[in-house]
Amino acid sequence: MTDHSEQISTPRRSVLQWAAAAPLLALPTLARGQTNAAPANADGFKPRVGQEGKDVIWVPTPDTLVERMLQMAMVGPNDFVVDLGSGDGKIAIAAARDFKARALGVEFNPQMVALSRQAAAQAGVTDKVRFEEGDIFKVDFTQASVVTMYLLPALNLKLRPQLLAMRPGTRIVSHQFTMGSWEPDDSSSVEDRPGYLWIVPAPVAGTWTLTSRGPDGETEARLAFSQSFQKVSGRVRMGDLNAGMRMVRLAGDRLDFELMDQRGQLRMYDGRVRGDRIEGRTLAANGAVGSFVANRVGPVLPIETVRD
Ligand SMILES: C[S@@+](CC[C@H](N)C(=O)[O-])C[C@H]1O[C@@H](n2cnc3c(N)ncnc32)[C@H](O)[C@@H]1O
């Protein structure tokens, strides 16, 4: 048990703990009651909103926000969605039923797992969704293309290194809680409840050699990127030119930037990062189209430059 879980040793304290961490939403949630709460399962177990969990109590995400979170992550049939701390299973089931994705719910409470399996059978999605009894800090979820969470700020931060190490382009959606200095790429509120989206950025910090090919021949350059999470800036050395890059934008494995060469020609670069290589197309201001390849020089540097 973590220090945090030790703080929520009784259901009453759990609710207060939750309320303290979620001043905007927890109290209204509990006061309004839970219309979305799960029914009893075959063994007569009836979940109770605010019941103790391992590291955080159970409070279900409302259906409207579940839908919005899955829309924000643009979940589709090719996705594998993992809900960390899946409660009654509603997010994983909605991903399978409404978005045709494969899904996995990881939940510590075995009775909630049984309830989720029953709900999946009722929804007719047992071929797409499964539930595992386990600890979110021990389970391997690296194969997910989308991760959903409704945890606590400290738990999000504890998971952050693992989330940042996932495949670039993996989407993470969190109900209510953020990820410290890793700012979200998008946010959206439904009935005053916020959902946040992050796209795992490719690691691009460091030096790269660049070769561009176009109608006027081949150009060699050296690129240097600085990175803090998805925020990237860069400089280029091309012959005796040493200049900043414009419009640098990283979204998952997609990296776009603009460079002005020694002759004052502005060129847009639109590439995909594949490990130690970036490949893509160029478009010059005069309309000339070309291609480019960049190769990393030196080791992969960390994305997470700020420790919260
Ligand atoms: C706030 S509820 C969210 C449930 C669901 N994801 C949703 O949004 O409706 C958090 C859930 O995480 C579970 N949980 C707490 N600590 C956990 C852990 N270490 N591993 C797995 N599940 C955990 C709790 O039992 C609870 O069901």
- Across the major sheet, the strand order is 11-10-9-8-16-15-14-13-12
H/E element sequence: HHHHEHEHEEHEEEEEEEEEEEE
CATH architecture designation of the largest domain:
3-Layer(aba) Sandwich
CATH structural fold name of the largest domain: Rossmann fold
What does this structure look like?
- With 308 residues, the chain is an alpha+beta fold.
- The protein has helices at residues 3-6, 11-21, 26-32, 63-72, 90-99, 110-123, 153-164; strands spanning 80-84, 102-107, 129-133, 146-149, 171-175, 186-190, 193-199, 206-214, 217-228, 231-238, 241-244, 246-251, 254-260, 266-274, 277-284, 289-297.
- It has 2 domains: 3-199, 3-Layer(aba) Sandwich (Rossmann fold); 206-297, Lipocalin (Beta Barrel).
- It has 7 helices and 16 strands.
- A 9-stranded antiparallel sheet has the order 11-10-9-8-16-15-14-13-12, with no helix packed on it. It has a 7-stranded mixed sheet with strand order 3-2-1-4-5-7-6, with helices on one face.
- Strand 4, helix 7 (153-164) and strand 5 form a beta-alpha-beta unit.
- The two termini are 21 Å apart.
- Bound molecules: S-adenosylmethionine.
- S-adenosylmethionine binds next to helix 5 and strand 2.
